[in-house]
Amino acid sequence: MKVPITQSKLWQKLQDDLGEKSFLETGDDYQYLAILKSLPAGNYLYCPYGPVAENKTGFKDALRSLEALAKEKNAIFIRIEPPEAELSHYLPKSTKKSQDLNPKETWLLDLTGNEEEFKARLPSRLLRYYKTAEKKGITIEESHNKEDIQYLLSLQKALAKEKGISTFSLNYLETELKQPFATLYLVRYEDPETKKNEIVAAGLVFDDEDTRYNLQGAQSEQGRKLHATGILTIKLILDAKAKNLKTFDFWGIAPEDAPANHPWKGFTDFKKTFAGYEKARTGTYDIVLKPVKYRLYCLLRRLRRLI
Questions:
Q1: Which of 126, 205, 260, 305 fits a 20 to 30 Å CA distance from 244?
Q2: 16 to each of 43, 73, 146, how far by Cα in Å?
């Protein structure tokens, strides 16, 4: 049973450091990490990319355990994101489809195989940029210094403004970087003429026992001209391979039927230049326990989005 990092003890430690209350439960054929969230209308439980189950029986056992926990915590609903799409057939009748929080589809790259097989999965153009990067004044460094997270945040804010998407707070990113599974990569460029030195791209990755998750990343306009994200992605993948990890998770792509103006369209086209494969998850669903309060929550949620 493959457990994503968001349903592991590692993620529970991150939640503890963020001041969240969470509950990790393991059964014979299931596991879940449920985070208790508070709303004006009451509480709910959230399982990011969970619960994880070996089979239909395990999934139903996990839901029973979650419902018991939810009643104990006086929760209005349970928000789940089962990682296996086929598990959606076994959701209870009280389940409502919610807006997806984590990406429903992602792109995965197989890191196994000999060097020749592995390199064949990488875009030759990006490999060429990577090999010549240093000659052009581009270097990549790793950091676990929380002061360096400001570079990522600054680049993300610019990207969020351009794409109309949201970003995380400084405290959230700093807390992520504190975790033993997190590494920040910074792409530095020194202009050969002006000698100006700047960070043109940054990426934050998480590693568990067999997967590298490429969760956070952004580049500047100068970085775009230098193909900084492409060069950085090759570095992230090669480092993951060197650590004997088996999979590189690009963390989210746009759906197949997404319109041309989808905010992830460019990201998706880039990720699919790697010879990987798509992984479809179930999406985000709410198991409703208190219908009246849940309707009130949905109304308030819609109003907040309109505002």
A1: 126
A2: 18, 18, 18
Cα–Cα distance, 41 to 205 (Å, whole number)? 35
Q: Round to whole Å and give the CA distance between 227 and 132.
A: 12
From the list 199, 179, 60, the residue with the least C-alpha distance to 138 is 199
Residues 128, 94 within the same domain: no
pTM: 0.92
Please indicate, yes or no, whether residues 263 and 134 belong to a single structural domain of this protein: yes
CA 68 to CA 71: how far, in whole Å? 5
| Mean pLDDT, range 144-156, rounded to an integer | 96
Residue type, 296: L
Q: Provide the token pair at 179.
A: 């975790």
Q: Are 271 and 204 part of one and the same domain?
A: yes
Check whether 160 has a pLDDT greater than 80.
no
Whether the Cβ atoms of residue 51 and residue 281 lie closer than 8 Å to each other: no
Total domain count, the chain: 2
Q: How far apart are CA 215 and CA 238, in angstroms?
A: 17
Distance separating alpha carbons of residues 188 and 235, to the nearest angstrom: 13
CA distance to 4, 15, 53, 205, per residue, from 7 (Å): 6, 11, 11, 17
